[in-house]
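Weekly modeling sync, notes
Attendees: S.R. (lead), two postdocs, one rotation student

Agenda item 3: backlog of single-chain predictions. S.R. asked that every request posted to the team notebook include the full sequence so nobody has to chase files. The rotation student volunteered to paste the first one in as an example of the format we agreed on. Action items at the bottom.

Example entry:
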Amino acid sequence: MSSLAPLPDLDPASREHAARVAAHLHRHIAQAGGWVPFEEFMGQALYAPGLGYYAAGSHKLAAADERAAGGDFVTAPELTPLFAHTLAVAVAHVLRAAGSSEVLEFGAGTGALAAALLPALQEQGIEARYRILEVSADLRERQQRRLAGFGARVQWLDRLPQAFTGCVLANEVLDAMPVRLFRWAEDGAVLERGVASTAAGFAWQDRPAPDDLARTVRERMPPLPGYVSEVNLQAEAFMRQMGQWLAAGAALLIDYGFPRHEYYHPQRIAGTLMCHLRHTAHADPLVCAGVQDITAHVDFTAMADAAFEGGLDVLGYTSQARFLLNAGLPAGLQALRESSPGAYARSLNAVQKLVSEAEMGELFKVLAVGRGLHAPPPGFERGDRLGTL
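Predicted structure, as returned to the notebook:
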């Protein structure tokens, strides 16, 4: 897992924070006997209270025009409000079908999606009540500042609801859930890849996989000696659990990933693990812990299966490009051209990034699951790929 590009230099505060996180991880590994599964390392690096990437005060996200100022990556809602305006068409359909005005967003980032989605829903006659479940304390503060003008219509939750009726949104959430790494040994055994603590830092170390992991891997792909990849059992548990609290409505899950036959393709021999540091993508999660994002692509077949096991209907699955084009992005862009030529010109590059096959358009997918809806929401009319899952 070598870097795709040279890593940027860290500022003094980031170097100091990375040193604190590394010391915490070394202690954690020592207490575990000198080795932890990668899932545990990733969980600590991202979510350790006061230290992890998503739990400490680090500037993670930047708007499209603020990349030079900081942040590690840009998400679709930060690129252009047209993303939220188009998504609002599907959200409004779900809310009307469920007889609800409730929206629940997981991992709301800078609040950009909520800030654009709420007015877009209002234009469609829906005075939505917006709930946010956010694990990052500093992102929650940024959201609260940005969304203060909406008053009590926006509220933050500290835990999952016991019951919810409405529309659930999760944009780039599943990819940030800690994954288990595995490697096929030469003799056909399944090994679990973990992390050991050494004098030089952190090092990969493989051990025989526990029965549950080995069984899961064998169910999903044939033996390929030397092949390394991931399974995201935490994300699957999240999808199954959704079936317990989503009483009616639908969830729209937007993330980068593949159906299983593409996810475990023989040519993808090193898996999909990826890190983001100051807009540099690389594949070494053992460096810069606490100051870089660590992600893995989503196995959408596993997510759909887990939702179905949880009692939900799998409503639609397609590429982000097809979803946005079906849901009315071209009409929204044309309306912007007529009302504000300057804003239209500024939006062209962002829209191209959202729908281009070479950018986010094909890599990102949209999965809709729900309960009580008689038809999928807008966005899946043409190019639905449910048959590929």
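Discussion: group reviewed the output briefly. The longest strand covers residues 246-258.
Action items: rotation student to repeat for the remaining queue; S.R. to check formatting next week.
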